[in-house]
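Re: that chain you flagged

S.,

Sorry for the slow reply, it's been a week of failed gels. I finally had a moment to sit down with the sequence you sent. For the record, here it is as I used it:
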Amino acid sequence: MAVDRDHVLRSAAALLTRKSTSTMDEVAKAAGISRATLHRHFAGRDALVRALEALGIAECEAALDAARLDEGSASEAVRRLVREIEPAAGLLAFLYTENQLFEGEGQNEGWTRLDVRIAALFRRGQASGEFRIDLTPAWLTEALYGLMASGAWAVQEGRVAAKDFTHMIAELLLGGALRREEP
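Prediction finished late last night. Pasting the structure tokens below so you have them in one place:
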């Protein structure tokens, strides 16, 4: 019987976003396969996390495309981005805590591609006078990642309603990023 790799990855992502310390046995059980089958596809936890990283980056890139970051105001583009990335937010929250993904020379270039595209959105908002210029695009990008991870955790734990995810993240970020008229 052929094992659907995408099913295994999505099952692992669903489990690890709820319980980041899950063992490979627990991941295999969640995917409905044996541990030996899981190990044939992923040599260990590191290989599984790297595959989840590739999935997360691909989902984020698809969300960036769907959000049409160059259309309309930068604020509206941020709102569209948060809405489009919401389905992957739990996976991103898990990946956000996996330090090995961000250390050393083995860092996936996909993170840089994401950072560049999101920072360009914030730069566009600054150039149009919509966003504050005292907050760097790099900082606004990191703040967005942090808010999305926190939002995913809060929804997962039932402290926040899933329907409020986009509104709360976008409005908190934009409320701090919008340029205010001085009296």
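What I noticed first: The two ends are 70 Å apart (CA to CA).

Talk soon,
D.
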